[in-house]
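Supplementary Methods S3. Input chains for the assembly prediction are listed below.
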Amino acid sequence: MPEKVTIATVAQHAQVSRQTVSNVLNAPHIVREETRRRVQEAIAALGYRANQAARQMRTGRSKLIAVRIEPTRDGINGSVLDRFLHGLTETAEAAGYRTMLYTAADTAREIATYDDLLGSYDLDGFVLTGTDHGDPRTAWLAGRGVPFVTFGRPWDDLDAHCWVDVDGAAGTAEATRHLLAAGHRRIAFIGWPAGSGVGDDRCSGWRETLRAAGVDPTGLHREATDGIAEGERHARDLLAAAPAPTALVCASDSLALGALQAVREVEPAVPVIGFDDTPVAAAVGLTSISQPLGEAAARCVDLLTAVLDGTRGAPAPVLLQPALVRRQTA
Amino acid sequence: MPEKVTIATVAQHAQVSRQTVSNVLNAPHIVREETRRRVQEAIAALGYRANQAARQMRTGRSKLIAVRIEPTRDGINGSVLDRFLHGLTETAEAAGYRTMLYTAADTAREIATYDDLLGSYDLDGFVLTGTDHGDPRTAWLAGRGVPFVTFGRPWDDLDAHCWVDVDGAAGTAEATRHLLAAGHRRIAFIGWPAGSGVGDDRCSGWRETLRAAGVDPTGLHREATDGIAEGERHARDLLAAAPAPTALVCASDSLALGALQAVREVEPAVPVIGFDDTPVAAAVGLTSISQPLGEAAARCVDLLTAVLDGTRGAPAPVLLQPALVRRQTA
DNA sequence: CATCGGAATTGGATCGTTCAAGACGGCGAG
DNA sequence: CTCGCCGTCTTGAACGATCCAATTCCGATG
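Predicted structure tokens for the full assembly:
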């Protein structure tokens, strides 16, 4: 059992004081070349690692960021969070931060958890996923002066705080243009009920692109709660209409999957495009819009560390472009 | 901006000493009823939370457990980890522990990460997912005396360490019995190359059940590397054989999905059963074997905290039963 | 009334690190 | 020659909790 290696052990081994070792770690430029080398050799030889708890107690910085892991809802969209988390953890590690998970049943308890995490572990910052209009969480965090970044725009005021997002409108626009280029005119959209930032954004890309092409979107829009069954129901409904749409764009892969089932039974030639490029889409050959999740996660960490290290001023938000992944269904 | 609340603040507010406050938190029974109540009121009034860094420095316990987040391989099985992580975090929180994530490109670097995490953050324990024969990680951890639990059996020596696992053989056995009950005899199995603990386990459940029913499994077994394409290829191969199998059991949903495509083109009536009950299976109506992931995660935390709190001796391993989820394909 | 014993409470030391302030030697300017 | 300064390094104190040993308090007992 090797003795515990502290900064004092290293200092003794390198014939310098504790503080000099600390300086080599935190402010190398103020230590003479030769001394620095000797200390670094001692660190390597002893396998010394700074004790974060002690460091944190003195500096108040924990080098820890937290992110919520949500219960997988319908499962289909679950792997989105999965990929995001992996990217986040990887980039954070490269920047010297570790990632802590937490769960929360609802928003009120999520805020209580912030309080707990900040009090108990002195977390340096938070990454929030999925913001909505008037999100109380961002208000709470901002009010406390806690650094955070959201994956998802603050839909009310784009300058309210740091954020990274994927341009959903650009995604559905690309999908719609793709279908227009294939000769379709009556392109329908199955989205979510109006009011959610993400849903309205995705809908607008479709609507504006149709309008720009001189097509009136009236009657081609359906609002569905997410899920396969809902997607199927609304697709059937659309296909049964008088002048039926000849193509479908959906706000999620779940909806698209349901729509696909309806299409295959009723009108197999009608193309369907989903959103999120989930494994399910890949498995069934569903054309879908892919979000650059690894990139998004990396930019979240970039922004957060920029705020934490305080070198630069408030960093600019990041809006990433999704990409259409063409498969069999369109 | 509220002042920082420490144990001293609470002590002052409750008119007692620091140590008494500490005792209320860590050994309530040695504090007089009335004093305890007063201290607890002060804690609530001030919103005091014990600083984990300070506690850790003195006690050496961080109340932190770590788990690796792997890059999603083919995406289909990704959500398995997702659900496991959520369960883990939730149960850990209830037990007063927090979950930290880490990534690692390979086993050697994973071990280096253990060293780093232990040195820097004094992690209390690890949860490993997916063990294999002669896993160097468990040997390293055991050698250092670091508490850990694996989700997955130590395939070489079942008493080597604490573990939780799902009985894969029981799962494939149930699937096979289900098909036998439906009148099938020539039931094939598409599994992984021999040598992996999980793969061999799942294969054995099918083989033994067939044998018990008086069916010779020879020629009904294919070894495939995981993936949709491989599943399709082997299924085609099987269906083209002289006495073709009338039903298929697969070691994963990926393989089953490929097999399903082959079946639908060649012999639509042949049932297919997958493994893991991923969202993809649910979406396409694939009958599959479901692992109780939330339960598994909870038991992992139970075992780990039992070891950490040291109240009981080495806790017994846990083997959970999976369940067949019947859908359209079988 | 003095003493005793055990429970309840207190003050000091400690964990490993960084901050603040100071020591030391050499060097250029006044 | 002295002073101040700079670069380099060292020492003491502090962060907030727990452990340990010492002390107070209290009723019971000799």
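The CA atoms of residues 92 and 301 of chain A lie 6 Å apart. The mean pLDDT of chain A is 92.
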